[in-house]
Amino acid sequence: MWRTLKEIRRYPSAIVGLFIIGALIILAIYTVIAIPYSRAIDLWRAGPGTWDENPRNAWPVWLDFFTPQKLPRTIIVDLEHAEVREEEVSEDRKKVELVLPVNFGYDGFPSEITLFLNTEGIAPGTRVRYSAVWENPLGQRVEIAKRRSMRGSEIYYISQDPQLIATLGAPGEYALFSDVNLRVAAAQRTVLKGTYRLYLQAELPKEARFTGRLIVYGRIHGLAGTDHLRRDLTVALMWGAPVALAFGLLAALGSVLSTFVLAGVGSWFGGWVDSLFQRLTEINMIIPMLPILIMIGQFYSRSLWLMLGVVILLSIFSAGMKTYRAMFLQAKEASYIEAARAYGAGSGRLIFRYLLPKMVPVILPTLIMVIPSYVFLEAALSVIGLGDPLLPTWGKIISDARTADALYKGYYYWVIEPAIMLMLTGFGFAMVGYALDRVFNPRLRTL
Amino acid sequence: MNDGVLLSVRELCTWYELKKWGFFHAGYVRALENVSFDLHQGEALTVVGESGSGKTTLLKTILGLVPPTKGEIFFEGKKIAKAVDIVALRRSVGYVQQDPYGALPPFMNVRRILLEPMVVNRIGTRLEREARVREVLEEVRLTPVDDFLYKFPHMLSGGQQQRVVIARALVLQPKMIVADEPVSMLDASVRVEILQLMRRIQKLHNLAVIYITHDLSTVRYFSERVFIMYAGKLVEEADVRTIVHHPLHPYTQALLEAIPDPDPANSKRMRNVPPGEPPSLVRPPSGCRFHPRCVHRIEKLCDVEVPPMFSPEPNHRVECWLYKS
Amino acid sequence: MSERAEEVRTLAIGVGKGAKQTGGELLRVRNLYLYFRTTRGVVQAVDNVSFTLREGCSAAVLGESGCGKTSLARAILRLLPRNVARYEGEIILDGVDTMKLSEEAFREQIRWRKLSMVSQAAMNALNPVLRVGFQIAEPLLVHDRMPKEKAYARAEEAARLVGLPVDFLQRYPFELSGGMRQRAIIAMALVTNPRLIILDEPTSALDVLTQANIMNALKRIKNELGVSFILITHDVATSSDLADEVLIMYAGQLVEYSHAETGYRHPLHPYAQGLMASVPTLREDRSLEFIPGQPPSLLRPPTGCRFKDRCPKRFAKCEEEPPVFRVGERGELVKCWLYEQTGERYE
User: Fold this and answer.
1) Chain C: closest CA distance from residue B123 (Å)
2) Does domain C2-114+194-342 bear CATH number 3.40.1390.30?
């Protein structure tokens, strides 16, 4: 059998397929090590604070290659970039001024501006007032916040502030990055490049600390972009690989092997065992799988592993039983099996050591080709909303994208990336499977 | 040479049941009817018959692959009745099959194939088994042994494959070999080699051999005694010379007439053979099963009553009304 | 018997050529090559085969499996697979060089008109969903576009010739036994009144008695219709029933072509001698001999005489490939250096 496996080398499509599968496996292994399961789930839950530094719905960074303009990336301005001035006001209070510079050299407007403020060292609940003034390269100043109060920490979404929008005539990310005096809509503004400054002033008790962080969100981020919850899609794309492979492989192995063994046992013993298996198969073939999965998902649980188990169970007594049984019935008449009976081999040995091994070359192509069907099944389940709610998978990305109307809003990358991954997987396995089929097929004639 | 009786078969009948729709009884295929004979240790016996004559069924019944419907089999004096007996019988009988390529599992190498019978029957320690494998490969002249141990069946020629089949039959040191058309699928020149090999092994180990074939011309190179079977019945039994030079049963006579020697004169004359085909075994002809095709048929006798075995000469039995003594 | 002869004469008159013609050449094969391309290289299945078959004569092609006999039949009938590497030579059938004909012309004029074939295990070649009678008549309906009644009448005649009872023509193949089906196939080959029928192992899967009956039928057809047969088989003994001449092939080459008397009794070529000595005989008391070793691979045939490694009469000159020599007054052919002195080169 190994000699025939080497025949695969003659089919270039299979080499490509093997390459793809190999790459997917390496990706899967790397992913599981680099981002362990629990961490992946945590990341994907997108709890508060997890993805704060990512822009929302950003395209992948490599988009920059295709556009003549330089697309903005996220700029994070921390205390380390800032000038800090402290001034004693009274016995126990001080005035702190932070100047946060932003060097903006991009050709487009940022997507969002957000200010993160934090006070430490004071009793919780203590009110602190701060003001913020924005200065653009033209020297124009805008008062963004005037004696605004905060307790503990605050996140100020500058770009969404309705008062600011009303004052400036356009959302903050546009207005603050262009000529302020122009009272036009966002689309008609041109971005100003240069150094911007945000002056933050606050008055607090002496022992307190005042920290501020300004994030000017870009429009591109990461290898794969981000979604509506600011999650970096590369995490999901990477994690999709082990999930898809595991689901596909386990489902394929579980169902095909079970069908194979049961068909072998049934056809060997004949009689009521065989009849029973065949009737079960016929009934099972009529029952549709997807509605059952939907029902289970709706009324019981959507856990991926449960779905996997149900899928395997429902696939065991399927059409494969009939095909394999036909092949086994013919194969069991082979002379060497008769000879083995003559030298005393028992039924168990005959089935598992003599009959089944002969047919392995036949199910190998089937096994490989059936894997992508299960991968797609998992994706399909996710898209219709039955996917595992916790795990980031390719199907989940598509599902989220669909719910967020990605295609209408022009976030094509969000849909295309998982689709490409799914297609590559299918392609890889299919190419290898077809080549194996062609390699093993002449053997079918000597059954 | 002729030691005691090893195998004794009495009035053996094997009928296969036909079922309509998997349930309903629809008659019997009377594949073997009332066969009786003795086989001695060290004796070689050939069973000759066309397809449907019952020769293969006889073999399968003796090996216990098919249960007999009536009659008895005795092996080494003991009656074979229970499953335990069959197991013991199988250990002492080697089976050589017709199609060497089909008879060897394609996914096992020669060493594994030869080890299997010992493994299955739990005979010998690992070392003993390996030694026996080498021994048996030497016997069938597949040398140097190491060259063949790890080869797979498809790497061997037809003749070599058949040698492996013979080796496998010998592995358990059987007392008897049953060979079903062992050379019919091999090339003409290889047949001779294999037949001679089997003959030599038989003589060396004093084995009893039942050799089944449809090719009467190979018989003389192989055994002393011949059985002729037709439609499930044993119709004539004698030694080779007698059968060839004065066959008694009309069917045997027809067989001999039908088998040519490579003689250029053959193209000038027609062969005097009876027309027709072997009968259906589900509804065999009444009386003597050959009577519809028999030139010497006696009305009201051959078509009514089944002839018993007659013995017109010593060591020569015929089942034919012509020899009513 | 006379009634049958009467019927046969009607059939024969329909053709225009009756019983044995004399003397003329029916099939002339010259320098025929057929090589196949496989994943492991080029297989030289038929390597420079030349012979002449006279009218009214039948020949047997003998040799072990893999010697090229079936490929020779395929080459003559132009039933070639797709991986042909080399196919050339001269095949003159009844005066027409068939190699020069286009595929379409070959199909219309030669195949199943002048030349037909009964292939191995042909009884499995019957279409299970069509009645036997229809299948026998089919070549006439398709090739000659004969009206149905006439075609069926000819089918009946052919069936009678092969010994197939006429009422079986209304049945389906599964209702017929193996022997009957084989007869049906032979009738199919006969029905267009070809000049030459190639039979490839026609009786190997059949019982001895049935085999003898079919050989009888073939003999009858040969004698009364004047059809020539080329019988390809590895069963040497049975071939003697039909053969006037013997072609012996080894490793893709024709090593001997002699009359039956010579070929079976005192063959010329050492391989033929070995082959005849290994045939078991029923009536003669003779010990059997076998040829040790195996035929060479057709992928990379050895240089020189292909039989040299197994030949008991090998000598120095055998390192060079021998040409074909014409020996004796009957013009028998043998490809062996032993005949260099006594024979003349055959081109």
Assistant:
1) 36
2) no
